[in-house]
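Many introductory courses stop at the sequence. We go one step further.
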Amino acid sequence: MTQNLRESLEVILDSFWLGRLYISGGLYEGSIELVEVDAPVNIPPRWPMIAMKWGVFCVIPVETGKVKAAREALRGFTVEEVFTGRGLRALLEVHGVMQDRGAHWLHLHCDEGRFKPQRGNGARLLTEEDRMLCDRWTKEYPRAIGPYSYSYANPVPFGVVEDGELASVAIVLRYDLPLWEIGVETRPDCRGRGYAKSVVSLATRYILESGKIPWYYIDAEPLNVASIHVARALGFVEYAETLNIKSI
């Protein structure tokens, strides 16, 4: 990038994301860069990205044939305005996608120097011996993140067990990328007890020891306050925002 805004870890992330977005030169402060792509730019978990923002920089990947429409739809927008409900609606319209399929995410990452481990609550790796616990969780919370979620990413599960049942689960999604993603879910009746911090802490340690970058994303509109509190308490810092199309 044109300014020395990031430490070494961010340089790795910048290189990765800008490469995926076909950006080879510098970005200018306050600029909105439209780039033509042959196919959707997907980010974990395979939801097409329609805009990415780092502070005052914004890149918008647009499939061939839609660049002119995107430029017209965003005429007069500032970087910040792209990342509002109005900006998301404009981009979804360009892509011909229903408004309820839009997502605005805040992405965070961590490194060894920032990491603030949270121990306790009996958090541990879940193994084959925990299969019955995991099966019951999946049956009771079929739409929630669980030990078997996103099997295509070879997940590694961690959990807290309370009264013979899983109370909180975190999984590490091991993509073939420099970053590995963390997903977390806590049973509604067990929230507010620090369980999420404990399992995410174990997941973060596992990723760091594997030589990968811990990656954590949350809903930005409305902001998932509890989730961002967990991330920040463990030392995660904000890296970027994205607008995405939800998978069906």
